[in-house]
Amino acid sequence: MKTKIISLLLFIGVVFNSIGQEIAPFIRVTASSESMQQVSEKVMTTLKNHSFIILGKYHPSNKSSLEVIAFTNLSMKNTVIKVKDRGALSAIFKVGLQKKNGKVTVSYTNPEYLLRAYLGKNYKIYKNIFVKFSTDVKTALKDLGNDFIAFGGTVKARKLKKYHYKIMMPYFSDPIELKEFSSFEEGLRVIQNNLKDRKGKTELVYQLIYKQKKVAVFGIGLLDIEDGEPKFLPKIGASHLAALPYEIILQDKKVTMLHGKYRLALFWPELSMGTFMRIMSTPGNIEDMLESICE
After folding, report:
1. pTM of the model
2. Does domain 22-160 have CATH number 3.40.50.300?
3. What is the rounded CA–CA span in Å between residue 81 and residue 249?
């Protein structure tokens, strides 16, 4: 009887800890005294050596002191596409490099945080694959440092699948439809051509295309000085740069984006209402810039 009681208490404890688990959006790896270029090259080399695929990189806000490297691997890429509700958005993760006071801080998007938020109930279905991915990322980046400190605020694990900033604010399930094309092929052509022309003062950072599934994800730098990253990033915190770039997803004929009031709040969960009000126009500005790419 005593053994059964102890086992029951342990089980209850595990369940309680899982429900109450707090997860942060980012993980800090190290702060290096090397140059931005040296650190960037090391990041890409170690990721490639551990079978990750580099999708692209850029300097947010056009600042040489900021850099983001987007990556994935075959396992992640081939798993999340099985989730029909914009699952492909979960395929891409980012390493952020920020040079400040003579040191380059290396951080990355916490896979568990993003996957729980974007995939909802589907997270549990493929959890073993996701845990391995997270472990593999950590193993790869250990070549740079061993800090691995979670930061950026926290959200309870159980709340991430239905995260929203405040009452009446949008959820993941409230995307903004930017355009409906006559076909997937037309949408792909229009978007790629507009990004090639840097329409709306944008920059194509990466594209991940599933031709057979008729799905494409585009990571887009928003470099407009008045309305883009140069305006909103300093206000909400550049240390969270691994949340960038912003993305759009083309599924069959429709192209959508996550609502700015959802996506920005998700990756800056500690934003005060006062700060949020300072970027009140940003979600609309982002929508306008991304919509222009679809015209």
Report:
1. 0.93
2. no
3. 12
